Every structure is written in C-alpha cells, then in structure tokens.
Amino acid sequence: MMSLAWGAATDRGLVRAINEDSLVANPPVFLVADGMGGYRSGDRASAIVAEEFTTGNNIERVTQEWVMQAFTRADTRIRADTDGGTTVVGMAVVQQDSRPYWLIFNIGDSRLYRCSGGVLSQVSVDHSVVQELVDEGRLEAAQARFHPERHIITRAVGSAEKPRPDYWLVPAEAGERLLLCSDGLSGELESAAIAAILNRSAAPQEIADALVELALSAGGKDNVTAVVVDVLAVGDDIPSGSTSAGAGPDLLMPDESTRPRDGSISFPAVSAR
Fold first, then answer.
1. 263 in a domain, yes or no?
2. Can you give the residue range of the structural domain that contains 57?
3. Number of domains composing the chain
C-alpha cells in the first residue's frame, strides 16, 4: 500500500484551436496521452486511450499484461474510429516482493520525470528521431529541444505498427514526486525549470498548475498537460485516514506539432460513413 496525493492540469496552449491531450489521474493508474491528427482525430485518439486505461477489467490488479491489453484495445478502436494516433506515458501501482513499485510505460515522446531528494531524473526514454540521434552520439542531449526534427516520433498508438511500449519497474519511495507530461511542457521548459517547480513545497495540484502556466508563458505552442503525484508514505508508515492506492500482483503550428516520421509510422485512412 502507498499513501498518495496528486494533481493534474491541461491547457490547449496559445496556438492550437483544440486540446488533443488527455489524462488519467485515477489510482492505481496515472497517464498522459498526446494526440496527433487534428480535430476529431488526435483528440479522439488520446481520449480512447484514457478510456481504456480507466474502464478495463480488473483495474484494481494492474500487471504488465493488463497494460498491454489496454494498449491493444485502444489501438483497435483508434484504427476503426479515427485517422489519428497518440503518444502515451503512464504508471501504475503494482507489487513486487511484497512492496509497492511503479510500473512505468511509454510510447512516443510524452515523458515521466522523478524528483527525489531534490534531484530530477527522466525515467522514460523518447521514441523520437532526436533521441535516436542522441543515442548514436550524433547530437548532444542539450541540443535536442531545438533540433528541427524534435517533434518527429517513431512510435505511436494507432499507427500502422502495433503498440510497442517500453516498461520500467521502479520501487516506490516515500517523499518522491513524479511528473507525467506531454511534450507541450517538456518542449518548452528546460530540465532546470521543471526541477525548480517540482522542488517547491506545495501541493501536487499547485505544482501541476504552475508547470502548465510556465509552459504557456514560455510560448505555449502546443497543448500542455501535467500530472503530478506525491508518494506521502509507503507500507507501515501510512497514517490512518490517508488516501491510499492498493498494489496489484507482479508483474497550431505544423512545425511545432508532434508528428510521425515519414516511412516509419502511417495512420490508416478512415472512409466516410
């Protein structure tokens, strides 16, 4: 068991006509999905993912298999109902060796950060062209935010390729703060700015609001979403009457829009009805 506090904020930004981001803040699952494809495409695709991760069977007992089944259901619906797609980053409470862990998963370039002991670390790894360049040693990580191909991703839910999430199993630690966000936030703010806000002594909702506001003040060129989760206590340290999450078994500017890499991801066309 864990005692948690959380908050969430989202905004369409200063350029986009609609908000294509969706979020889930419903223990044991937290998630951000960043849709692609424009009106009735990206917004619908991200909403479908959020629905499948909140209405699936046996949500109280999340496993890696459960996560994959939710991705598969969402992928099938997105292909049938839209001509868009979506990135996804999320985490769920699971149990390993009788203690709570975070099962973290992602597809695309939405991110999960962990702040512990005042130190910020990025847990998820982007599925993007610039991340490939960084991995190959052809681009410095600090240059990635300004690269002309920074919005081109290599994986998405609803693409021609079946969902291929990456997974991490991370021990939950009392006192840590986690941030899930769309690239409308991480693309506008440097890591130092994100860390400064996450290290504030404030409630998660205040932190989420502050992060979104800062991204808007930095330009707000894309939809912006932040979900902030605090681990207040773990196991025997949970105070009476606190909010707890149970643990399951083991385990619009086109050039500023997230988009698939040509030749790598294609979204099936939907015929008119």
1. no
2. 2-246
3. 1
- Tell me if 25 sits within 8 A of 181, measured CB to CB: no
258 lies in some domain: no
Q: How many other CB atoms sit within 10 Å of the CB of residue 252?
A: 16
The answer to whether residue 88 sits within a structural domain is: yes
C-alpha 157/C-alpha 268 separation (Å) is: 12
DSSP 8-state symbol, 148? T
Least confident of 4-18, 120-134, 188-202: 120-134
**What tokens does 267 get?**
């979204």
Residues in the chain: 273
Residue ranges with strand state E in the chain:
2-11, 21-26, 29-36, 85-96, 99-107, 111-116, 119-122, 152-153, 166-171, 177-181, 224-234, 244-245, 259-260
Tokens of 206: 């205040």
Q: What is the CATH number of the domain that holds 142?
A: 3.60.40.10
Residue 261: inside a domain, yes or no? no
pLDDT digits (tens, 9 = 90+) for 36-51: 986 569 999 999 999 9
The tens digit of pLDDT for each residue in 172-228 reads 999 999 999 999 999 999 999 999 999 999 999 999 999 999 999 999 999 999 999
Percent above pLDDT 70 for the chain:
77
